[in-house]
From TrEMBL:
<dbReference type="InterPro" id="IPR018195">
    <property type="entry name" value="Transferrin_Fe_BS"/>
</dbReference>
<protein>
    <recommendedName>
        <fullName>Transferrin-like domain-containing protein</fullName>
    </recommendedName>
</protein>
<keyword id="KW-0812">Transmembrane</keyword>
<dbReference type="GO" id="GO:0005615">
    <property type="term" value="C:extracellular space"/>
</dbReference>
<keyword id="KW-1133">Transmembrane helix</keyword>
<dbReference type="GO" id="GO:0055037">
    <property type="term" value="C:recycling endosome"/>
</dbReference>
<feature type="domain" description="Transferrin-like">
    <location>
        <begin position="35"/>
        <end position="369"/>
    </location>
</feature>
<keyword id="KW-0677">Repeat</keyword>
<dbReference type="GO" id="GO:0006826">
    <property type="term" value="P:iron ion transport"/>
</dbReference>
<dbReference type="GO" id="GO:0005886">
    <property type="term" value="C:plasma membrane"/>
</dbReference>
<feature type="transmembrane region" description="Helical">
    <location>
        <begin position="379"/>
        <end position="400"/>
    </location>
</feature>
<feature type="compositionally biased region" description="Pro residues">
    <location>
        <begin position="1"/>
        <end position="12"/>
    </location>
</feature>
<dbReference type="GO" id="GO:0005769">
    <property type="term" value="C:early endosome"/>
</dbReference>
<dbReference type="Pfam" id="PF00405">
    <property type="entry name" value="Transferrin"/>
</dbReference>
<feature type="region of interest" description="Disordered">
    <location>
        <begin position="1"/>
        <end position="34"/>
    </location>
</feature>
<keyword id="KW-0472">Membrane</keyword>
<dbReference type="InterPro" id="IPR001156">
    <property type="entry name" value="Transferrin-like_dom"/>
</dbReference>
Length: 403
């Protein structure tokens, strides 16, 4: 396997034309090479346990390739230095758009669920003081986000602030390629902790270390990190995946040394206002559904090799060793994963509404006509043309038949 690049490039600031999911797989040498799972930082230990289990039950050889960030892993996969990794829907959109990657499998949760809910969690005392508490009451306070550009931690909350009119969207000027989502969050909250997997990005004003998004900020990364940020008082509100508080509170099944408060000391904050006990049904108290985490590989992966990867993971996904309950940090795969399933749809379809929200957040402040033009230029206009032709031919057939 070739050595990793010394410095991975940053993804383009502007949205690029996405790879075509329907492009045939191109031939590639080394189809019998070990299958390399890209592990990020501390994931490497869990990855080695994971691939050891796979090697015991697999005809293929599995290895781990370590990188310091998920964006470095995306770059490694694109360059053929690694083969696959697991990503949340928000980062999967970045991998698809900028690193020529596609989804080949996804996690499946309890009751065959292939999605999870985005929730906001606050301290119970805030709800006791104000029964009609709403997100607008947190203007000027501190927020916790599991990761910059992640679906539950960033994209969905940002889009809600825009859609609800709680925060005006900063406008872009001509030739301005800077994103506006971080400015929007910084304008609403006094400080935030949203660690980034990309150097120079993210909002880490409340992560410690003088507000710098360094490796220290990874203490608050992921859904567990966002809850820890709320738990220790770094933030007043946390945006994360439902089910996190139940596992990581002081009386939870995955309680950590930093889990100093019981579940009863927290409440869900509903999007339309009001609080709800975390043990209650969260229906109508979420910020949306996010597709399950996906396993992605490069778009040029030979079809024969891709099929081997899928087959081996499908066979292994029935082993409980794959999803150890002590994996509270969701290393390699989410700890709540019950199974892995192959994705039959195109990556755009797999990511669903999450991809739409990701694009909206990415293009905040841009002229809507320009965004529409960019979207059409991405290849979606072909679908529109095909539908128009079908409608025209159908109408013509009906007209001729009626004569």
């Amino acid at each position: 396997m070739p050595p990793p690049s010394s410095a991975p490039p940053s993804p383009p600031a502007e949205m690029v034309r996405p790879p075509d999911d329907d492009t045939p797989f191109t031939p590639e040498s080394g189809s019998s090479d070990p299958i390399a799972w890209c592990a990020v930082r501390d994931e490497i230990s869990e990855c080695r346990t994971f691939v050891a289990m796979l090697n015991d039950a697999s005809s293929a050889t599995w290895t781990c390739e370590k990188r310091d960030s998920r964006f470095e892993c995306m770059h490694a996969i694109m360059k053929g230095e690694a083969d696959l990794m697991s990503l949340d829907a928000g980062l999967a959109y970045i991998a698809f758009m900028n690193f020529h990657m596609k989804a080949i499998m996804m996690e499946e949760y309890c009751y065959f669920a292939k999605s999870y809910e985005v929730v906001a969690i606050v301290h119970k005392e805030e709800c006791s003081k104000n029964p009609s508490l709403s997100l607008k009451d947190f203007r000027g306070k501190e927020s916790c986000h599991g990761g910059y550009l992640t679906a539950a931690g960033w994209n969905y909350p940002v889009q809600f602030l825009v859609d609800s009119g709680l925060q005006a969207v900063p406008k872009k000027t001509a030739n301005d390629t800077e994103r506006r989502d971080d400015e929007l969050i910084s304008s609403f909250f006094s400080s935030s902790c949203a660690p980034s997997e990309l150097e120079g990005q993210g909002v880490c004003t409340s992560c410690g270390n003088n507000g710098s998004c360094t490796t220290d900020s990874y203490t608050y990364a992921g859904h567990a990190g966002a809850f820890r940020c709320l738990m220790d008082g770094t933030g007043d509100i946390a945006f994360l995946r439902s089910g996190t508080a139940e596992r990581l509170s002081a009386d939870g099944i995955h309680a950590q040394e930093w889990s100093t408060k019981a579940l009863e000391e927290f409440r869900y904050l509903c999007p339309q206002g009001g609080c709800r006990s975390i043990n209650e049904n969260i229906e109508n108290c979420t910020f949306g559904s996010v597709p399950a985490n996906v396993i992605m590989t490069r778009n040029s992966q030979p079809n024969s090799r891709r099929l081997v990867i899928v087959e081996q993971l499908l066979n292994a996904s029935y082993s409980q060793t794959l999803y150890k309950p002590q994996n509270w940090n969701d290393y390699v795969l989410s700890s709540r994963t019950q199974n892995l399933v192959e994705t039959k749809e195109l990556t755009r379809q797999v990511l669903g509404n999450s991809a739409v929200i990701s694009q909206k957040v990415e293009t905040l402040g841009e002229d809507k006509s320009e965004v529409t033009a960019a979207f059409l230029d991405s290849g979606s206009h072909l679908l529109c043309v095909n539908w128009l032709l079908l409608i025209c031919f159908t109408l013509l057939y009906i007209f001729l038949w009626s004569q």
